[in-house]
Amino acid sequence: MPDLAQAALLAFDIDGTLTDATTWWGGPELGWLQRYSVRDGEALLRIKKRIPTVPLSRNKTQAARVRMEGLGMDTRWVGTSDKIASLKEICEAFGVRPDEVCHIGDGPDDAEVFEAVGYGVAVADAHPIAIDAAAIVLDSPGGARAIEELDLRMGGPR
Predict the structure, then answer these.
(1) Is 71 within 8 Å of 41 (Cβ atoms)?
(2) Domain residue spans in the chain?
(3) Contact yes or no for 151/5 (Cβ under 8 A)
(4) Residue-level pLDDT, tens digit, the chain, 158 residues
(5) Strands of the sheet with 9-12, listed across from one edge
(6) Superfamily designation of domain 4-153
(7) Which residues contact 67 (CB under 8 A, 6 or more apart)?
(8) Are 86 and 109 in contact (CB under 8 A)?
């Protein structure tokens, strides 16, 4: 099993990873809404103190962007249409190689990223294609403190 503490950067999906993949329509003023775990947010902030931590997500909602901005995350790769091209940009921006990157996600598009990075991590309820491609499958499903579990597996506070 890969040693997650050796990762030099964390890239993470939003829908189905930080959320349980459920959305609600809040009306034209609010748009689509999502529920996020405060404890996952705290875990992201702890990880961010150790290594660069960036969202890599196709999510184009205002809810996702505002949540990421609230956590002080770099939002250049929120709403991307091509995760592999964005991964290359992230590696260049932060001076890391793909094999030094840990990516956590849940979907078939994340499976492609798992194959390109050194540490592919799927949440417990990920799509079967993502689970098959992941080096590590967490015990926690998306939106249920999966990032907190990842933080612990990366050597975070116990």
Answers:
(1) yes
(2) 4-153
(3) no
(4) 779 999 999 999 999 999 998 889 989 888 888 889 999 999 999 999 999 999 999 999 888 999 999 999 999 999 999 999 999 999 999 999 999 999 999 999 999 999 999 999 999 999 999 999 999 999 999 999 999 999 999 998 87
(5) 53-55, 9-12, 101-105, 119-122, 136-137
(6) HAD superfamily/HAD-like (3.40.50.1000)
(7) 14, 18, 34, 36, 41
(8) no
Residue 144 contacts by C-beta under 8 Å, 6 or more apart in sequence?
20, 37
What predicted TM-score, i.e. pTM, was given to this entire model? Answer: 0.95
Could you count the other beta carbons within 10 Å of the beta carbon of residue 112? Answer: 18
Enter the tokens of residue 10.
């964390």
Q: Which two tokens stand for residue 64?
A: 């996702």
Length of the chain: 158
